[in-house]
Amino acid sequence: MPPILPSPEMPCYAAVVTLKPRVVIVGPGRLGSALAVQLKRAGYRIKEIVSRNSRTSGRKARALSRQVHAAWSGTNPRLEADLIWFCVPDRLRAVQRCGAAVASVHPFMTFVHATIPSLQGVPFALEGDPAALRVAGRIVRDLGGQPFSLSKSRKSIYHAWGGFTSPLLVALLMTAEKVAQAAGLSASEARKKMLPIVRQTLANYAKLGPAGAFSGPIVRGDAQVIRKHMKELKKVPGATDVYLALARAGFRYLPVRNRKELEKLLPGDNNLRKADNFVTNQ
């Protein structure tokens, strides 16, 4: 998470409310790079990009600094700004002990290399000191985002929620690619052919909610088809585990038919081996 640190050298906090603060970005990785570009587009002055002085990270940081018209620093950063944004793991108690106002600002968005996503309408979870939160909220709104408060005790579960919405979704799609390959398609063919149904599923989810978007043999309670799926998925390492985990989630949270029969196919979390034996013996 990227904490925001209004510098203790700020001559007047009220000035920061009316004027856009000068910003230093520490840690120009995927998030930091996207943030620097978006802040620049929103009219903020990026004073400095600070990175580790390694060949790879230093080269990328220098390229970013040129893009946003900022200085670059490695081992001896100047940190001459109104606000310092650390795009690093959220462990900065030492900075608070030095008197800085600190806020944790976590955009609910995925950041990968070579792509800078729009932040328009993106939720940003905010937690921290009141003074820093006021500055953070204004910056998020300038970026087009939607700030909301999150208690410190819930930050980890919030981060886990994000894991389900993007990286684990990609893991699911990667597993689907492997299943498609077992059906005779190449990985590139699988990706191309999956996109229409994935997009329609997301559209259904957005419009109708999870129950309205849920389709297929589980919602129909078609135990015979599910049994065949599980048997065939043994050809793909790990696919049965993924299928069972997601099928159980659907069974638990969504309306399905023929529950009594499905319970035989979707055992508890610690019984995957039992499920494999059940399918093998059919």
Report on this model:
- This protein has two domains: 3-154, 3-Layer(aba) Sandwich (Rossmann fold), CATH 3.40.50.720; 165-280, no CATH class.
- It is built from 13 helices and eight strands.
- Mean pLDDT is 86; it is low at 6-18 and 269-282.
- With 282 residues, the protein is of the alpha/beta class.
- An eight-stranded mixed β-sheet has the order 4-3-2-5-1-6-7-8, with helices on one face.
- It has helices at residues 13-18, 30-41, 55-67, 93-97, 130-142, 155-165, 167-182, 187-213, 217-220, 223-232, 239-253, 259-265, 272-280; strands spanning 3-6, 23-26, 46-50, 71-73, 83-86, 103-107, 123-128, 146-149.
- Helices cover 52% and strands 12% of the residues.
- The chain is elongated and about 65 Å long.
- The longest helix has 27 residues, at 187-213.
What are the key terms here?
elongated; 282 residues; 52% helix; 8 strands; Rossmann fold; alpha/beta; 2 domains; 8-stranded mixed β-sheet
Please describe the topology of this protein.
Layout: E1 3-6, H1 13-18, E2 23-26, H2 30-41, E3 46-50, H3 55-67, E4 71-73, E5 83-86, H4 93-97, E6 103-107, E7 123-128, H5 130-142, E8 146-149, H6 155-165, H7 167-182, H8 187-213, H9 217-220, H10 223-232, H11 239-253, H12 259-265, H13 272-280
Parallel strand pairs: 2-3, 2-5, 3-4, 7-8
Antiparallel strand pairs: 1-5, 1-6, 6-7
